[in-house]
Write a structure and sequence with these properties.
Mean pLDDT: 86
CATH topology of the largest domain: Immunoglobulin-like
Number of helices: 6
Radius of gyration: 26 Å
Number of strands: 10
Structural class: alpha+beta
Strand content: 25-35%
Order of helices and strands: HHHHEEEEEEHHEEEE
Strand order of the largest sheet: 6-7-1-10
Length: 239
């Protein structure tokens, strides 16, 4: 979106294409690929994506240089927290952090209401990454345990009681590594809405899983839209 905002359409297409390779299920990625390919004048590629995503209906507003765009980047909730695993306190596990606010609704000048859609799930990515790393973590713990056993055995050869106490103390001090980026959101969501140039008043309203307001949000915020430009708004919900 930054490439697109700077009118570097070819770079924007390349970035959208790389995003598609990473996760072809990103919501509305078909729209991004079709639009950016056409803006980058990659007409053969544009036609290919049109065939790939026949359900996508092009919007004339995508190519109207007289319109601007309001982009809301919404960081929802908190990512999972590291805790000791239930069956092995030396290993970490990720525990989901509950949140009330799941989506955000944008209302512009009391007329246009648009609800956000997720483009990246930090929680799922973190949990999957930890699962993939478990083999390495287990191997490291086994190596560490073996090193502790050797050290304790060396002490035990001199003093059996001292060696036993050393082994117990070393293992009691061994805990799962719970360091993490604890301020990451649970999901990253987005709203994109084309608008004619002008100054607008907008509200952001947090919604729960059923679509009911949660009390979180922003009220009576102003934004100025310029022709052919994007205005970015970033908001984070914490409940």
């Amino acid at each position: 979106m930054i490439w697109e905002a700077n009118r570097n359409y070819d770079d924007a297409y390349i970035a959208y294409n790389e995003a598609y390779k990473l996760d072809p299920n990103i919501p509305r990625i078909g729209e991004d690929l079709i639009r950016s390919a056409k803006l980058a004048r990659r007409m053969d590629t544009y036609k290919d994506w049109k065939k790939k995503f026949p359900e996508v209906k092009e919007d004339d507003a995508w190519y109207n240089r007289n319109l601007g765009e309001l982009v809301v980047i919404y960081q929802q909730g908190w990512g999972p927290r590291k805790v000791p695993a239930q069956n092995e306190y030396r290993l970490p596990a990720l525990q989901a952090t509950p949140s009330d606010t799941k989506l955000v609704r944008l209302n512009v000048d009391g007329q246009q209401a648009v609800v956000s859609h997720p483009i990246y799930n930090v929680e799922e990515a973190a949990i999957q990454t930890l699962k993939e790393d478990y083999g390495i973590l287990v191997a490291k713990r086994i190596a560490a345990l073996a090193a502790k056993a050797v050290l304790a055995d060396q002490m035990r050869q001199k003093n059996k009681l001292l060696g036993d106490l050393t082994f117990i103390a070393l293992n009691m001090a061994d805990r799962a590594d719970l360091r993490q980026w604890s301020t990451l959101p649970q999901t990253i969501q987005i709203i994109r809405i084309p608008l004619p140039p002008g100054t607008y008043t907008y509200n952001l309203e947090g919604l729960n899983i059923t679509g009911a307001p949660t009390g979180e949000g922003l009220e009576k915020q102003e934004v100025t839209i310029k022709p052919g430009r994007k205005e970015f708004v970033v908001w984070r919900s914490l409940k």
